[in-house]
Amino acid sequence: MMEEDDPIEEEIPVYLSKSLANNLNVIQFPIKNHMYNIDRSNITNCCYKPESKQVKIDFKLDTASKNYDAFKGDMLAKIADGNRASTSYDKNDHPTFTSGRMDKATYTSSIGVENPRYAVGLMEAGGMYLVPVKTFFQMRQTYSYFDKGDKRTKAEKGDMEEEEPEEDLKQVTVKFARTGDSEKIKKAREKSYRFISQIGKDEPWCETLIYPQHTAQSQLERHKISSINICSDISTGTNMSQDEYFDKLVNSADANSLDASLAQTLKLKEEDTKPEESEVILCKGPISKRQIKKLPLLDQLKVILKDAKLFSFNNLMEIIGTTENTTEKVLQNLKLCGVMIRGNWTLQSEVLYPPSYVSSVNGISSELMCRGRDYVLFKLIRNELMSLNRQKISAIIQLPQEETREILESIACLKSNKTWDLLKPPDYEFEKKYPDIYQRQEALWKAQEEKFLEMEADKNEKRKRTRSVRESKA
Predict the structure, then answer these.
(1) Beta strands 127-132; 14-16: pairing state
(2) What is the CA 73 to chain-centroid distance, rounded?
């Protein structure tokens, strides 16, 4: 969108505050609207379990309100605590409702979600201050007084019943499990939901201090967001130039470690470089264009062709073409690692599948993978791959379906008629511009044509043998 159509009204600096980063938690309640807002309720008690990370909050109910059912409140209190004046069972226990009437609503959280990618923002003094949220607690109302009533009722009935006769003693055989197996079972049990829930039940509640919203203590905590421990990296980042900011962004610990590993890999001269060193470069994950520029030209071409799969020469020159990397120099290095297919370039099979390579699915060796891929490249150069589907190709190169698909996807794409063709349209202008390269590539493939024809002949011969066996059985 044009700048004049969407003018900038105001620029607001954004700061990242870390003063409350490890202590700021968000508590979410299921009900909140203009009629009933729990933020305006009175909190009578708040407890916390640090190990299982649970929160419990008691909110005071207005028992004098005309909307409060006094009869129901008395009945619920009696269910939870019973008749404490006449029941000896509950005399040493803390009552659920101290007033003898249901005077509070209890909310308990589920297991907190730690380290979410959220922050709480505060607009103050013309700037926005962001504080990372440590944990989210989702609160649900609990009705534990019903469970307490059931437990008390069962206990009272148990006292009234006669004691059961003692059972006769029986011999018990004890077997000890292996140490290794017991450790595995123990670790698996500790990760189970039942075990985690039991830990949460056994852990005692720790009471916390409560500061209402407009008190001096709460205002002091709120003031910490915008007063201290502002992250200097964020606040001063807006004063940098584009180049300084980019350098600071790229030159991170990961980038430095990558530079060190690449420098260690490429410290030998090009004529003394071993094949294993190129393998290290190709085995690395995707790297930025900035990091590619630091590699020698030959390794730049290897990395680009591996990631792009199939690339035209003009696109290569747009990426790596400089005053040092002239057209002649790029072509000279491209012959060492690339294969030309109808004007476009792809990585040689020996470079893509080095001697140490083993396929991830069926463990096929690099020799068989190179043999199968060269056959596919030959068919693409002759424009004959469209007459074959994946099943036929797999039978000819004698590789599993997974490896065959991996080879095809490294250079071709699947058409609607279930045949395969080049990822990019041919670049015949390049072939006309550099006929010597075209003739050289043709001579190399002509020398291997007999090998590929033998592969097809072996496949046809096996099919005839299978057919003759079936006829003899008939």
Answers:
(1) parallel
(2) 50
